[in-house]
Amino acid sequence: MTHVMVEGGSQLLGSFAAADQIDEVHAFIAGKCIGGRSAPGPVGDPGIKALSDATSLRLSRVDSFDNDVRLIYRR
User: Fold this and answer.
1) Under a CB-based contact definition with an 8 Å cutoff, are residues 37 and 30 in contact?
2) Is 55 part of a structural domain of the chain?
3) Tens digits of residue pLDDT in 18-67
4) Counting CB atoms within 10 angstroms of each CB, which of 19, 23, 33, 63 has the fewest?
């Protein structure tokens, strides 16, 4: 197997991040404000203590769809 697409909640994505198994991220930004103080973030606690320990990805593509934007980051 060479590719796996993971669509899940913050706990699943946090597990993949902690295992250093994320090579590509598709992030969508919409012109809507939702959430609140107790709203979960997109990635659960991957156990990264310092910003320098986080996986670095580079912006590879930007697409716009009506009023939304997709950002694609790759390792």
Assistant:
1) no
2) yes
3) 888 999 999 999 988 888 888 877 787 767 788 888 889 999 999 999 99
4) 33
Structurally, the chain folds into a number of domains equal to 1
Structural domain contains residue 28: yes
Q: Is 63 helix (H, G, I), strand (E, B) or coil?
A: strand
Query: Rounded to two decimals, what is the model's pTM?
Result: 0.79
Q: Which two tokens stand for residue 38?
A: 């107790």
Q: Are 54 and 40 in contact (CB under 8 A)?
A: no
Domain with 64, as residue range(s), is 23-33+49-75
2-30 pLDDT, tens digit per residue, is 888 998 888 898 888 888 899 999 999 99
Residue 4: closest CA among 23, 29, 30, 28: 23
3, part of any domain: no
